[in-house]
């Protein structure tokens, strides 16, 4: 078996062999749908696709795109791993590991979340180490027992079973009773995509300056990241005395997934609070739930990386999952959110 590996040029991404590979992996029109994602990644300026070729036939790929990160106070290039897949008949020969290894060698600060044990083991063997800890957390609004039953039934019976045990906004109400909100006196203003400007970017970037790690939120990045989701999210600014103190962005209600459980809910895309503000994560997240309640939009829960004192909640995995990177050092205080990579499918 002759295996070769090749980084594709922009022209080769449109070649018949690559189109055939995409359609075999993602269905009849898979190439067309994936091409939109690739164009989005490439818009940041450096998108790399490497393919594995066995006996002249493309059998799999791995890819990465570049953004800017601020790591320990210094701006650096940062590559996200994305869209890795192999044809079933080519698995078990070390092809996937070799694809990942090429990206580890050629992309500075190559990183990705530990999506599965196999995924994580391969990345560790290629040189990836823990950068920061991630906590994928589900906060119920009207459904907790039903979600847990999906998880338990899938493990016990190898089949995900659903049951309707929903009381609208039950858990929100319980947690609201035991929380003293600090939002009195604040104006909550919606920011449309067309209204993203330097003021918003400067607020977000300055509010994250105390973190050891974050993806740089300059205006170019915000327009790129949120342009991909335009019309599918809300962004709110919390303003007091004419000054922004917090910004939160969240998806519109959609069919979301947490681990393998399905629910109707929202994903928190960004949540940035000024270090000078008295507002807390819980103030902001409870208001996001209230936002949907006021509009009679029923949601079962929300998923986010942010942590708050809320009962019950479900974090997976316990206690956290690592963001693996070739940076070579673990950091204690990192900020990452769902807008930074396509992770809300977890």
From TrEMBL:
Domain N-acetyltransferase: 39-103
GO molecular function annotations of the record: acyltransferase activity, transferring groups other than amino-acyl groups
Domain of life: Bacteria
SUPFAM superfamilies: Acyl-CoA N-acyltransferases (Nat)
InterPro entries linked to this entry: Acyl_CoA_acyltransferase, GNAT_dom
A Pfam short name: Acetyltransf_1
Protein name as it appears in the record: N-acetyltransferase domain-containing protein
Protein source organism: Caecibacteroides pullorum
């Amino acid at each position: 078996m002759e295996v070769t590996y090749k980084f594709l040029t922009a022209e080769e991404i449109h070649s018949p062999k690559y189109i055939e590979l995409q359609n075999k992996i993602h269905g009849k029109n898979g190439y067309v749908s994936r091409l939109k994602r690739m164009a989005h990644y490439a818009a940041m300026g450096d998108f790399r696709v490497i393919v594995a070729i066995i006996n002249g036939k493309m059998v799999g790929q791995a890819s990465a795109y570049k953004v800017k990160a601020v790591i320990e106070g210094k701006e650096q290039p940062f590559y996200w791993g994305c869209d890795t897949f192999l044809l079933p008949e080519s698995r078990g020969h070390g092809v996937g590991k070799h694809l990942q290894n090429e990206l580890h060698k050629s992309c500075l600060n190559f990183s990705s979340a530990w999506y599965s044990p196999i995924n994580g083991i391969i990345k560790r063997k290629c040189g990836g180490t823990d950068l920061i800890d991630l906590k994928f957390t589900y906060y119920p609004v009207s459904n907790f027992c039903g979600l847990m039953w999906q998880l338990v039934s899938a493990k016990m019976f190898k089949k995900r079973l659903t049951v309707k045990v929903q009381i609208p906004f039950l858990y929100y109400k319980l947690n609201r009773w035991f929380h003293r909100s600090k939002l009195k006196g604040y104006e909550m203003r919606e920011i449309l995509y067309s209204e993203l400007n330097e003021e918003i970017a400067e607020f977000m970037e300055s509010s994250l300056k105390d973190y050891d790690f974050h993806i740089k939120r300059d205006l170019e990045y915000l327009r790129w990241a949120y342009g991909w989701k335009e019309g599918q999210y809300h962004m709110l600014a919390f303003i007091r005395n004419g000054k922004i103190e917090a910004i939160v962005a969240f998806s519109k209600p959609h069919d979301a997934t947490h681990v393998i459980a399905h629910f109707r809910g929202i994903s928190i895309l960004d949540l940035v609070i000024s270090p000078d503000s008295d507002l807390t994560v819980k103030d902001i997240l409870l208001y996001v739930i209230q936002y949907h309640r006021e509009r009679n939009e029923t949601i079962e829960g929300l998923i986010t990386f942010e942590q708050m004192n809320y009962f019950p909640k479900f974090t997976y995995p316990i206690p956290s999952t690592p963001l693996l990177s070739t940076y070579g050092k673990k950091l204690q205080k990192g900020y990452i959110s769902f807008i930074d990579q396509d992770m809300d499918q977890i």
